[in-house]
Design brief:
This protein is mainly α. The chain contains 23 helices and two strands. The chain has a two-stranded antiparallel ribbon with strand order 1-2.
């Protein structure tokens, strides 16, 4: 192992590779900070450039660009309430709430530092536990994936603002939107009304842009909102140490859970961030502060985000199975460069495997200086008149929605769902569960129908496998506790009302 690490260091610590990491990080920072542009888009843009690189610099470009873009995606969420990823939508209300409370610098600093620590923890887990986690991930069947998706969706409904009932209705709306398009198993059209574009389904990127960015523009435009002087960004790392020490349990718990869930193929950090945010709220001594600018959930889910990003490479490197869209692109680059992913990578070419790990460490460490620079540059956002800023944001939203399929259909999706979100939020409904319903709906449906076909309609089969049984009991237990608490609360209110009228 030591010899492989030294050989990997010789591949990574060269002038060419380090320059590629720096340039790719700067590119990822720019793309991630732009509303409507995604880390997957940034990685895809870099692929043609990697044709002319050696194997290690090529994969280093993808890794560093992605790590920077996902973390930078939290900047528009913190400053403008426009989350860069579905994962950051889990804690956008808290990060944006801190900005409204005059703590924009602290929110950015906590997010960057939590992501850095989470990414480093995820990298360490890859180093020591990659084969074990990969075997654990491959042991998951459609039954486990169904319960995991349902658990994540339950967390979204339970922690959303407006109460459980409104959160559940928002979640059901997201699941309905996810039904639009072709049935994933039988390819039967649903709610397409003869439209070829609707047959392709509703992409979550235009939906997320519209429901957060466009709705925020409409709300601020109606209120005539202006930025406050105290919302300007100063030193992002001032006071971060105290916050992280106070919530150190959340920090490392989020990183650990994120690393495990991120290793599951096709799941990634989106689900993990929602699970850990819900866990943070459920175990917090002050759950009433969540969603109003409280850093506890931001620390845990922020660490989860980058830890899951790192561990998503475990199935990609060890078995050649992509963990998410970005690692799917990376697997293609690996194959193109002759670094065929699979078990032989650890035996025949271990230096290439450890080179990827070293790039992860460097990319996560670069989050601190690059994040500091981005935070300092973002202060200019608040010097722009709100009307001009809204126009610029709307332009980026249109470009980002159009770029998904190079079609105006994405723009119309953004506009329609933005108007829907504006109306819903005006009546106290949360938007974030809708987005998660759109993202996880296909995963839930596909694994449910697949499991039912395997089990020949026997629902007890969902509890026959040990891990599936644990996940199923946990999910049902959560809902049982919620229903029981709701019944107790209703009875208490009825008793109080009767005592007042007596």
């Amino acid at each position: 192992m030591i010899e492989s690490l030294l050989s990997a260091a010789a591949l990574v610590f060269t002038a060419d590779t380090l320059l590629v990491i720096l340039l790719a990080s700067a590119f990822g920072l720019f793309v991630g900070a732009m509303p409507g542009l995604t880390a997957t888009m940034a990685a895809a843009i870099l692929v043609p450039i990697t044709f002319y690189m050696d194997p290690v610099p090529a994969i280093a470009a993808i890794i560093s660009c992605t790590a920077m873009a996902i973390t930078a995606g939290d900047l528009p969420g913190t400053l403008l309430r426009i989350p860069g990823t579905p994962a950051s939508a889990a804690y956008v209300e808290d990060s944006y709430g801190m900005t409204k409370n005059g703590k924009a610098s602290l929110a950015i600093g906590v997010g960057i530092t939590s992501a850095t620590i989470g990414g480093l923890v995820g990298s360490l887990l890859i180093l020591f536990a990659a084969p074990f986690l990969a075997k654990f991930a491959l042991g998951f069947s459609s039954f486990e994936y169904f319960w995991l998706a349902l658990l994540g969706l339950s967390c979204a409904a339970l922690v959303s603002g407006g109460g459980v009932a409104k959160g559940l209705l928002s979640l059901l709306l997201g699941l309905f939107i996810a039904q639009v398009g072709l049935d994933p198993l039988m390819a039967q059209p649903r709610f397409t009304f003869g439209s070829g574009e609707l047959a392709g389904g509703i992409s979550f990127i235009p939906a997320m842009i519209g429901m957060f960015a466009l709705a925020e523009i409409l709300r601020n435009g109606r209120a005539g909102a202006t930025f406050k002087e105290q919302a300007r960004v100063g030193n992002p790392f001032k006071g971060v140490g105290g916050v992280l020490f106070k919530f150190r349990k959340n920090l490392f718990r989020g990183a650990g859970i994120g690393a495990v869930i991120g290793a599951l193929p096709g799941v990634g950090g989106d689900l993990a961030a929602w699970v850990t945010y819900a866990l943070a709220k459920r175990t917090s001594k002050t759950p009433e502060k969540f969603g109003k600018g409280h850093p506890e959930g931001l620390v845990e889910a922020g660490a989860t985000n980058n830890a899951a990003l790192s561990s998503a490479w475990i199935p990609a490197m060890v078995f050649g199975i992509p963990g998410d869209a970005v690692t799917a692109i990376a697997v293609g680059v690996l194959v193109m460069k002759g670094m065929d992913p699979g078990p032989q990578l650890l035996t025949l070419n271990p230096q290439n495997f450890y080179a990827v790990l070293l790039v992860f460490f460097l990319a996560n460490l670069l989050l601190l200086p690059f994040g500091f620079a981005a935070a300092k540059a973002s202060r200019y956002v608040f010097s722009v008149p709100r009307a001009y800023l809204n126009a610029a944001i709307l332009l980026f939203c249109i470009v980002g929605s159009y770029a998904i399929n190079n079609s105006m259909f994405g723009v119309w999706v953004m506009i329609v769902l933005g108007l829907v979100a504006y109306v819903l939020e005006a009546h106290g409904f949360a938007v974030a569960p809708i987005i998660l319903g759109i993202v996880l709906g296909p995963l839930l449906e596909t694994n449910f129908t697949t499991s039912m076909m395997i089990a020949r309609g026997d629902l007890l089969a969902f509890f026959e496998r040990p891990v599936a049984a644990v996940l199923g009991i946990a999910t049902i237990g959560i809902w049982a506790m919620v229903i029981a608490s709701a019944v107790v609360l209703a009875r208490r209110r009825k008793r109080d009302a009767e005592s007042l009228t007596a």
